[in-house]
């Protein structure tokens, strides 16, 4: 299947959903660019499935509109929308073989000659040799691929995926993430993927909307969200962040803060706009951006790096990295991940250390006003 669609962007404008007095989705505006792999990411209950179901037409919005390109589809029933949904439960027909399952949508529409399209789909999901198998003869990942093929054969403009990999074990999940990404690139249509798994969203999506409490907290490319979280929720939901409470000493291109008796630099363009001297700032740095030196070796640390002193309280070797927990005057329980270090050069609990990192890898968060 090589036809690239021309359906246009998915646009949600002021869309919300309330159940009685409970608001599952707060009014939100979201544009999903045509042809992108877009993830709605958040913890259970944050409203991501409800948002997806409003795009599908399976849920009526309380307010707002859904458009596909120039077309307002808010009042169209699901079957009249050019979208298809793949659910976590693949819901394949157990008595039909794989090719019949895939052909189902075409046959229901009265299309008789389906072989060419079914073969194309089987090839797309790399199950050509399983055409005559029944679903129970396939692995979970293969069944999920059949569900994707069955949805794509209808040539939707948008494929909606609701935790489609949720039932798979971790290894298979990882394989299927790459597989779904490959399929999306090949067919070129818009995929909107709901997941609570941040690694999954980061692996697959061009853009991720991080949802919390029925709102989109932040929208962006995975690397941007990871490097520039704007709220503590995003900083903690996507990976691990060290967040150090600090007081602003100077503002400018770089913001200088004091924390635990020392000074740290935070790039001004990675901090909230309303930072003022004397105000509070949460200073964030990812554990893998930090290096450790013995306190005795502090002189070897290059000038210009952010540094705080501390004492190792725990260290664990987890294969790809050694993970340290460090108590510091700047904050207790700081996390540091160091890669590729020899077993005998690892630091042991009790060691006095200096944590140091490039200020460019530092971000600032406004602790008092979490969503800006
Ligand atoms: P999960 O990953 O657990 O599915 P989610 O982020 O997809 O979570 P939603 O399914 O969108 O969350 O639900 C958002 C909130 O709306 C939840 O608190 C849920 O209990 C509530 N909710 C969903 N459907 C209904 C309904 N039909 N009636 C009442 N409340 C509902």
From TrEMBL:
Pfam families: ABC_tran, TOBE_2. One of its GO terms (cellular component) is ATP-binding cassette (ABC) transporter complex. The keyword Transmembrane helix does not apply. Residues 10-238 form the ABC transporter domain. Gene3D superfamilies: 2.40.50.100, P-loop containing nucleotide triphosphate hydrolases. The keyword Nucleotidyltransferase does not apply. Its EC number is 7.6.2.11. Coiled coil: none annotated. Keywords: ATP-binding, Cell membrane, Membrane, Nucleotide-binding, Translocase, Transport. It catalyses: ATP + H2O + polyamine-[polyamine-binding protein]Side 1 = ADP + phosphate + polyamineSide 2 + [polyamine-binding protein]Side 1. The complex is composed of two ATP-binding proteins (PotA), two transmembrane proteins (PotB and PotC) and a solute-binding protein (PotD). NCBIfam families: potA (TIGR01187). Part of the ABC transporter complex PotABCD involved in spermidine/putrescine import. Responsible for energy coupling to the transport system. This is Spermidine/putrescine import ATP-binding protein PotA. It comes from Streptomyces laurentii. The lineage of its organism: Bacteria, Bacillati, Actinomycetota, Actinomycetes, Kitasatosporales. The gene is potA.
